[in-house]
Amino acid sequence: MIHLDPPTSALLARLERFAADHDASAADRSQKMLNLERPTAELVFLLIASASRRRVLEIGTSNGYSAIWLANALRVSREDTLISIERDPAKAALARANLRAASLDTRVTVLEGDATALCESLAGYFDCVFFDADRVSAPAQLAALLPKLTDDALLLADNVLSHPGEIAGYLAAVDKTGQFDTLTVPVGKGLHIARRRHAL
Protein backbone atom coordinates (compact mmCIF):
# COMPACT_ATOMS: atom_id res chain seq x y z
CA MET A 1 0.00 0.00 0.00
CA ILE A 2 1.19 3.50 -0.89
CA HIS A 3 1.05 5.99 1.99
CA LEU A 4 0.25 9.56 0.93
CA ASP A 5 -0.56 12.44 3.27
CA PRO A 6 -3.99 12.17 4.94
CA PRO A 7 -5.75 14.97 2.96
CA THR A 8 -4.58 13.49 -0.36
CA SER A 9 -5.56 9.98 0.69
CA ALA A 10 -9.01 11.20 1.71
CA LEU A 11 -9.47 13.07 -1.58
CA LEU A 12 -8.46 10.03 -3.63
CA ALA A 13 -10.90 7.86 -1.67
CA ARG A 14 -13.70 10.36 -2.39
CA LEU A 15 -12.84 10.39 -6.08
CA GLU A 16 -12.86 6.60 -6.18
CA ARG A 17 -16.35 6.48 -4.65
CA PHE A 18 -17.59 9.25 -6.94
CA ALA A 19 -16.24 7.55 -10.08
CA ALA A 20 -17.72 4.19 -9.12
CA ASP A 21 -21.18 5.68 -8.51
CA HIS A 22 -21.03 7.98 -11.53
CA ASP A 23 -19.83 5.34 -14.00
CA ALA A 24 -22.44 2.85 -12.84
CA SER A 25 -25.23 5.25 -13.79
CA ALA A 26 -23.72 6.97 -16.86
CA ALA A 27 -25.38 5.71 -20.03
CA ASP A 28 -22.82 7.28 -22.39
CA ARG A 29 -19.31 5.81 -22.11
CA SER A 30 -17.78 9.15 -23.09
CA GLN A 31 -19.23 10.70 -19.92
CA LYS A 32 -17.75 8.07 -17.59
CA MET A 33 -14.69 8.90 -15.50
CA LEU A 34 -13.00 5.54 -16.27
CA ASN A 35 -10.39 6.11 -13.57
CA LEU A 36 -7.46 3.81 -12.98
CA GLU A 37 -7.99 0.97 -10.55
CA ARG A 38 -6.17 1.67 -7.28
CA PRO A 39 -3.59 -1.16 -7.75
CA THR A 40 -2.67 0.22 -11.19
CA ALA A 41 -2.39 3.76 -9.81
CA GLU A 42 -0.10 2.54 -7.05
CA LEU A 43 2.13 0.68 -9.52
CA VAL A 44 2.36 3.76 -11.77
CA PHE A 45 3.26 5.84 -8.70
CA LEU A 46 6.08 3.47 -7.76
CA LEU A 47 7.43 3.28 -11.31
CA ILE A 48 7.65 7.05 -11.67
CA ALA A 49 8.91 7.76 -8.15
CA SER A 50 11.56 5.04 -8.18
CA ALA A 51 12.83 6.06 -11.62
CA SER A 52 13.07 9.73 -10.59
CA ARG A 53 11.10 11.01 -13.55
CA ARG A 54 11.14 14.80 -13.95
CA ARG A 55 8.85 15.75 -16.85
CA VAL A 56 5.77 13.60 -17.42
CA LEU A 57 3.01 13.79 -20.03
CA GLU A 58 -0.38 12.20 -19.36
CA ILE A 59 -2.81 11.66 -22.22
CA GLY A 60 -6.31 11.37 -20.80
CA THR A 61 -6.92 13.48 -17.68
CA SER A 62 -10.57 12.66 -16.97
CA ASN A 63 -11.36 14.03 -13.49
CA GLY A 64 -7.71 14.24 -12.44
CA TYR A 65 -7.56 11.07 -10.33
CA SER A 66 -4.49 9.66 -12.05
CA ALA A 67 -2.90 13.12 -12.33
CA ILE A 68 -2.98 13.38 -8.53
CA TRP A 69 -1.09 10.09 -8.29
CA LEU A 70 1.40 11.16 -10.98
CA ALA A 71 2.05 14.57 -9.44
CA ASN A 72 2.65 13.05 -6.01
CA ALA A 73 5.16 10.65 -7.56
CA LEU A 74 6.96 13.70 -8.99
CA ARG A 75 7.25 15.59 -5.70
CA VAL A 76 11.02 15.31 -5.57
CA SER A 77 11.89 18.70 -7.02
CA ARG A 78 9.97 21.92 -7.59
CA GLU A 79 11.17 21.75 -11.18
CA ASP A 80 9.29 18.51 -11.83
CA THR A 81 6.47 18.97 -14.33
CA LEU A 82 3.26 17.14 -15.23
CA ILE A 83 1.30 18.06 -18.33
CA SER A 84 -2.05 16.34 -18.78
CA ILE A 85 -4.26 16.40 -21.88
CA GLU A 86 -8.07 16.15 -21.87
CA ARG A 87 -10.36 16.70 -24.84
CA ASP A 88 -13.60 17.09 -22.82
CA PRO A 89 -13.87 20.64 -21.39
CA ALA A 90 -16.18 19.53 -18.57
CA LYS A 91 -13.77 16.83 -17.44
CA ALA A 92 -10.83 19.23 -17.73
CA ALA A 93 -12.63 21.72 -15.47
CA LEU A 94 -13.39 18.96 -12.96
CA ALA A 95 -9.75 17.86 -13.04
CA ARG A 96 -8.55 21.39 -12.34
CA ALA A 97 -10.92 21.63 -9.36
CA ASN A 98 -9.68 18.32 -7.96
CA LEU A 99 -6.06 19.33 -8.48
CA ARG A 100 -6.73 22.55 -6.58
CA ALA A 101 -8.25 20.50 -3.77
CA ALA A 102 -5.04 18.45 -3.72
CA SER A 103 -2.90 21.64 -3.69
CA LEU A 104 -1.40 20.57 -7.01
CA ASP A 105 -2.86 23.20 -9.33
CA THR A 106 0.48 25.01 -9.62
CA ARG A 107 2.32 21.76 -10.34
CA VAL A 108 0.07 20.35 -13.09
CA THR A 109 -0.90 21.90 -16.41
CA VAL A 110 -4.16 20.60 -17.89
CA LEU A 111 -4.42 21.19 -21.63
CA GLU A 112 -7.74 20.92 -23.49
CA GLY A 113 -7.99 19.69 -27.05
CA ASP A 114 -7.09 16.93 -29.48
CA ALA A 115 -4.30 14.86 -27.95
CA THR A 116 -2.54 14.06 -31.22
CA ALA A 117 -2.41 17.71 -32.31
CA LEU A 118 -1.21 18.77 -28.87
CA CYS A 119 1.49 16.08 -28.85
CA GLU A 120 2.75 17.48 -32.15
CA SER A 121 2.87 21.03 -30.78
CA LEU A 122 4.38 20.36 -27.35
CA ALA A 123 8.06 21.03 -26.81
CA GLY A 124 10.15 18.28 -25.24
CA TYR A 125 11.64 16.83 -23.35
CA PHE A 126 9.56 14.10 -21.65
CA ASP A 127 11.02 11.24 -19.65
CA CYS A 128 7.66 9.53 -19.10
CA VAL A 129 4.40 9.37 -21.06
CA PHE A 130 1.23 7.79 -19.70
CA PHE A 131 -1.24 6.79 -22.43
CA ASP A 132 -4.70 6.53 -20.88
CA ALA A 133 -7.16 7.90 -23.40
CA ASP A 134 -8.06 7.04 -26.99
CA ARG A 135 -6.08 3.85 -27.59
CA VAL A 136 -6.64 3.94 -31.36
CA SER A 137 -4.88 7.29 -31.81
CA ALA A 138 -1.98 6.37 -29.50
CA PRO A 139 0.34 5.28 -32.37
CA ALA A 140 0.12 8.74 -33.95
CA GLN A 141 0.80 10.34 -30.57
CA LEU A 142 3.80 8.09 -30.06
CA ALA A 143 5.18 9.05 -33.46
CA ALA A 144 4.88 12.73 -32.61
CA LEU A 145 6.51 12.27 -29.22
CA LEU A 146 9.44 9.99 -30.10
CA PRO A 147 11.82 12.85 -31.01
CA LYS A 148 10.91 14.55 -27.72
CA LEU A 149 11.66 11.61 -25.42
CA THR A 150 14.77 11.19 -23.31
CA ASP A 151 17.15 8.31 -23.91
CA ASP A 152 15.71 6.37 -20.96
CA ALA A 153 12.06 7.41 -21.41
CA LEU A 154 9.36 5.35 -19.74
CA LEU A 155 6.10 4.70 -21.59
CA LEU A 156 3.03 3.45 -19.72
CA ALA A 157 -0.28 2.40 -21.27
CA ASP A 158 -3.42 1.16 -19.52
CA ASN A 159 -6.17 -1.19 -20.79
CA VAL A 160 -3.82 -3.63 -22.49
CA LEU A 161 -5.75 -6.68 -21.30
CA SER A 162 -9.25 -5.14 -21.27
CA HIS A 163 -9.07 -3.69 -24.82
CA PRO A 164 -6.45 -5.76 -26.70
CA GLY A 165 -7.86 -5.03 -30.14
CA GLU A 166 -7.91 -1.27 -29.67
CA ILE A 167 -4.41 -1.02 -28.23
CA ALA A 168 -2.77 -3.51 -30.61
CA GLY A 169 -1.66 -0.73 -32.97
CA TYR A 170 0.13 1.11 -30.17
CA LEU A 171 1.91 -2.03 -28.97
CA ALA A 172 3.01 -2.77 -32.53
CA ALA A 173 4.24 0.82 -32.94
CA VAL A 174 6.35 0.56 -29.79
CA ASP A 175 7.86 -2.74 -30.92
CA LYS A 176 8.52 -1.40 -34.43
CA THR A 177 10.81 1.32 -33.10
CA GLY A 178 13.22 -1.34 -31.82
CA GLN A 179 14.11 1.06 -29.01
CA PHE A 180 12.16 -0.25 -26.02
CA ASP A 181 12.21 -3.13 -23.57
CA THR A 182 8.60 -3.97 -22.76
CA LEU A 183 6.49 -5.82 -20.23
CA THR A 184 2.74 -6.19 -19.65
CA VAL A 185 1.73 -6.44 -16.01
CA PRO A 186 -1.64 -8.12 -15.29
CA VAL A 187 -2.76 -5.48 -12.81
CA GLY A 188 -6.14 -3.77 -13.13
CA LYS A 189 -7.03 -3.70 -16.81
CA GLY A 190 -3.45 -4.48 -17.83
CA LEU A 191 -0.53 -2.05 -17.73
CA HIS A 192 2.04 -2.03 -20.54
CA ILE A 193 5.47 -0.76 -19.52
CA ALA A 194 8.14 0.22 -22.04
CA ARG A 195 11.58 1.61 -21.19
CA ARG A 196 13.75 3.13 -23.86
CA ARG A 197 17.19 1.61 -24.13
CA HIS A 198 20.12 4.00 -24.06
CA ALA A 199 21.63 4.51 -27.51
CA LEU A 200 24.88 2.57 -27.90
TrEMBL record:
This is O-methyltransferase. GO terms for molecular function: O-methyltransferase activity. Pfam families: Methyltransf_24 (PF13578). The keyword S-adenosyl-L-methionine applies. GO terms for biological process: methylation. SUPFAM superfamilies: S-adenosyl-L-methionine-dependent methyltransferases (SSF53335). It comes from Caballeronia humi. Keywords: Methyltransferase, S-adenosyl-L-methionine, Transferase. InterPro entries: SAM-dependent_MTases_sf (IPR029063), SAM_O-MeTrfase (IPR002935). PROSITE patterns: SAM_OMT_I. The keyword S-adenosyl-L-methionine applies.
